[in-house]
Please model this.
Amino acid sequence: MNKETIKRFYHTFRLCLILSSEKRADYIRRNNIFHSMGYGCTIMKRKIPLCSKLISLGNNVHLASDVSLVTHDAIHLCLQAFEKSMGGENDYKEKIGCIEIGDNVFVGTNSIILYNVKIGSKVIIGAGSIVNKDIPDNSVAVGVPARIIGTFDDFMNKRRRTIYPEILTPKSHYITKDLEDFCWKDFYAKRK
Model:
């Protein structure tokens, strides 16, 4: 095992011990694990991606659970084996590339950001999306592959509407019985 692999495993182990997504992001920034990383970020995942120096995050970037930042592919292994079995030359190389994410970005659960992708500022990526091409500023993108369905500004205006009474606001990700009851009542009311 080379020095870089050991270092990546060490940082991954350390991230597993950090319970707060904000503190994990701070750890990554303080230890220069990515090429660059801004402030006010949260990262749910605890695994350091391969080629992490090819990743750049701006300020106020929030990566939800199981977001994968993929800076490389492994297709060359398949191609090399096939070529070798056919008696050919083995000249396939691993493909690598950078990922840049701007300021004020949210990436939803189980999304995959592929190499050679730039996500602009003021962007929301919906859960389960695969981002294989650049996403411009002020966009909401979803799907496989991700496509733009609206603007960040329009999304902000829609989210300003109150979803539940202020007095029922969750505290530290925990809800009260009253908020639980309110949500179920609202859920069924929308289906009548």
Observations:
- Residues 27 and 94 are 29 Å apart (CA to CA).
- The chain has a mean pLDDT of 92.
